[in-house]
Amino acid sequence: MKQSEVLIVGAGPSGLVLALWLKAFGVGVRIVDAASGPGTTSRALAVQARTLELYRQLDLAQAVVDAGHPIEFFNLWAEGKHRARIPLGAIGAGLTPYPFFFIYPQDRHEQLLVERLAAAGLEVERSTTLAGFEERGDLVEARLVDGNGREEVCAARYLIGCDGAHSKVRNVMGVGFPGGTYRQVFYVADIEGDSPALNGELNIDLDEADLLAVFATAPQGRGRLVGTVRDDRAEQAETLQFSDVSQRAIDNLMISVRMVNWFSTYRVHHRVAEHFRRGRAFLVGDAGHIHSPAGGQGMNTGIGDAINLAWKLAAVLHKQAPEELLDSYEAERLPFAQRLVHTTDRAFSFLTADGPVAEIVRTGIVPRLMPLVGKLPAAREFLFRTISQTLVHYRTAPLNAGHAGKVHGGDRLPWVQFDGGDNFAPLPRLGWQVHVYGEVGAELATWCALHGVALRRYDWNEACAEAGLARDAVYLLRPDTYVGLAAGTPSVALLDDYLRANGLRL
């Protein structure tokens, strides 16, 4: 019987990121996947700013930025007529080191993660499926079947299901997956060709009955088309070819297709698992939540799940925290998934609504209103914060406490620039850290040294105040860089109380 501290089932982006972070924390990991190799189709495209911020902690962000493609403009078409070109550019300037909307196709994304994982000494075990598992005491015994049909048993302290919407892990856990399926059938095609809409920008064409989106995957001549399968052809969705559904794209957006690299039809689902944890088994990514692609949130949410869970598993396995810490994973990520599904559902329903009123709004009012809204600084900031996931917080979860200035425990730390750097610079190794913006007292410095916590002091400036930070306050950052405790001064007693209340030994 093989043994591992953590067994990950599924090697999509969520599973790969989970494995990378666990390896960085020194946890023994095994990762298996039913597929024979990494994905070869682009599938998820968007990499959000919060994901890049988290990637920076393991020196991944720049590799993604160097290989991807920022979206500088949003073009709105209505019934084949170009109606607006809205600049995006650095739409989140001052909020994050990654103030743009960004495209990095999932096939290349996965390959980068696989390479980084291999460099860390861990290979994905391909063509390996999970047949079932049982908890026995403080272990999970999982039955794995390789590509030749040979079965083995792997014992692990924890089992993580990163195995997608049809998750075997979730089924064995017996966790419900309530939700529904939208009536529309969609197609997706990765193409090469010529068109005013293959210009390296985001193009959306609103029609009477549906929509067509073109997401640039290169500065020129390459993109992904997402559109609705119309009329009775939806009944034969499984047998359709690109030529069966492409006429609207060719007519409205003047697309001349040289090559179709990938084509598929699909239905959009909206579901959230009833629980993300049961005993020693956990759900991450699409195994726990699926929703419409509106806003490019799916893959990024799964990556956020993975990083949230990784440091907690490591803390428990290294005996730095009690088993109860793992309950905070569901407490933090499940409510966010539920809110996200609700939000994307409303956006998706608006974009695909039927009826004469919906048609007037979609093809008449929206094309006139969007350019005006796109010029409003407050609207642009709200749009960026929402889509970029920099608004995600865990204020109401029990692991987080206190507030100082406008920053509460559970918040993402506000980003602030200083001469020669910023306050998001990664630690030499993942771990807890204390931030002070102003002066550090001797008692706090001694406390940090005693607990092995990195202490970072930044000179107070106006940007700190604008970000909502409090002068001389103490911000204890968790290993995922969310604020665990925000405290005024004197603060050492509050730090001790926080560790004691959560059973943490740093």
TrEMBL record:
Keyword Flavoprotein on entry: yes
Cofactor: FAD
The keyword Hydrolase appears for this protein: no
MF GO annotations: FAD binding; oxidoreductase activity, acting on paired donors, with incorporation or reduction of molecular oxygen, NAD(P)H as one donor, and incorporation of one atom of oxygen
Record key words, sorted: FAD, Flavoprotein, Monooxygenase, Oxidoreductase
Start and end residues of each FAD-binding domain: 4-343
Ranges that cross the membrane: none
A Pfam family matched in the record: FAD_binding_3
Record's protein name: FAD-dependent monooxygenase
Protein's organism: Massilia litorea
